[in-house]
Amino acid sequence: MIIYDVENFPNPLRVRIALAEKNALDTVTFKPVDLMNAEHRSDAFLAKNPFAGVPVLELDDGTFIAECPAITEYIDHHFAGPSLTGETPKERAVISMMQRRAETQVLDAIANYFHHATDGLGPALETDQHKEWGQKQHTRALKGLEYFDSVLAKTTYVAGDAFTVADITLWCGLVFGGFCNVTIPASLIHLQSWHDRVAIRPSITV
After folding, report:
1. Which domains does the chain carry?
2. Whole-model pTM above 0.90?
3. Contact 153, 85 (CB under 8 A)
4. How far apart, in whole angstroms, are the C-alpha atoms of residue 29 and residue 96?
5. From the first residue on, what is the mean pLDDT of each consecutive set of 10 residues in the chain (206 residues)?
6. How far is Cα 65 from Cα 3, in angstroms, rounded to an integer?
7. Dihedral of the CA atoms 60, 34, 38, 119 (nearest 10)?
8. How far apart are CA 12 and CA 199, in angstroms?
9. Bridge-partner residues for 3, per DSSP?
């Protein structure tokens, strides 16, 4: 099993945390992608993922799986350990819903702000910026943080009492925010408390 990624980038980090939660980090081979030199846009990489994103999981039979929710779902079902995606139909549905909200309202919003309203990865890679739209994504991200603060006022974790892929996605969104000064406002005490709990998990500190 091979994972093509860029270490410490937010989406690859989601996969690495999921692997750590399943005690499976040492069962895969990581192959770095030279994103800064546009390796992700090469023909060889596009054959693995035509949408040029990392990470990509390559299975032993040659199957390529892209998109973090798909990769983490595979990891969750392939390896033993506590479920990250839910056991019952209701759990799976709620976790999927909250994971998607964490993705669209926080992680993706911060990513769009970073790539469009800041210098991002530099002019060689950021070739189609829309700064006004990027600033709107900054506002969207802050509203997303407010939403999750309201959720975490009632639950221990994003989708209930257990740590799941929804928490991983929200955490990685906040990690990305740290790169571009999108931080937790002081008023969002429930989100900050959740952040402090998650920060000391072995899968985060590994």
Report:
1. 2-78 (3.40.30.10), 89-205 (1.20.1050.10)
2. yes
3. no
4. 27
5. 93 96 96 92 95 96 96 96 96 98 96 80 75 87 97 97 98 93 95 97 89
6. 9
7. 130
8. 18
9. 30, 57
